[in-house]
Amino acid sequence: MLQKKTDALEEKLGAEEITTISDLQTLMIVKERLDDVKQNIAKLNESSKEESYELLAYAEERYFSAISWRQFFAMEGKRFVMNKETLKESCQQKISEAEERHQYASLFLGSLPVLNIQQKIEAAEKSLQEEEFELCLIVASQAKADANAILSSLGLSADNFAEFINSKQQAAERVISENSAEGIFPILGYSYYQYANSLKEQEQEQYTALIYIEYALEMSELSIYFPEEQEFMEPEFTLPKELVLVGEGLVIGILGTLLAVFLVRFFRKGKKRKSKR
Fold this sequence. Notes:
The protein is an all-alpha fold. It has helices at residues 2-13, 21-43, 49-70, 84-109, 115-129, 133-153, 158-181, 187-200, 206-219, 241-276.
């Protein structure tokens, strides 16, 4: 049943018009969630009864998360040329950048500590071959951000790590703000930024917070890979301030709900791990 619902949602995604960065990032995160669903469904036949319940519950949570994210397709913004050619090129470029960062990280740490980055790059390449360019783009961006988190934190001590995260956070705030002022709201970058904020005050989660800040930075600069649509170079109208405030409130409210669901699941998993020890 869940597989059929996933297939139906994927079919609907093909009909979405992707013209803004918000559209693109919404499609990226929805496809990532649906890919999680399919991967967990595929594991069901090879798992025990207890494991199958957990896999199915996680798959259902990913499916409903995809449904929640899908409503962001309605957001307005500066329009870009986003066709198969430009999406493929952006995917290839992001893979190349991720591979470069991965090689640098491997020089310092060896191949084993950065194995997860290599796996993400391979997953992105697989998506590229299957012409799942949006999925490729988000996975390759995450791989690059994972490597950046390693490279940027080399040599840092516990005493100055918090200060370093604050400087990274300020950089993410600036990038998100500058893009938003240009009519390019990086909704996925903003979501990662908010999640990093929820983690950085927890001492044991500071490195995870750094990773999500790097995700925010990567996802907030995707417009550089796409040319603008010429007819939208000059703004035709300005939204009333009241509508802008209502729209921002809606976005923050929905993202807050998604973040709350994620955090509940995150800490439940943590408790399960502790109970098994």
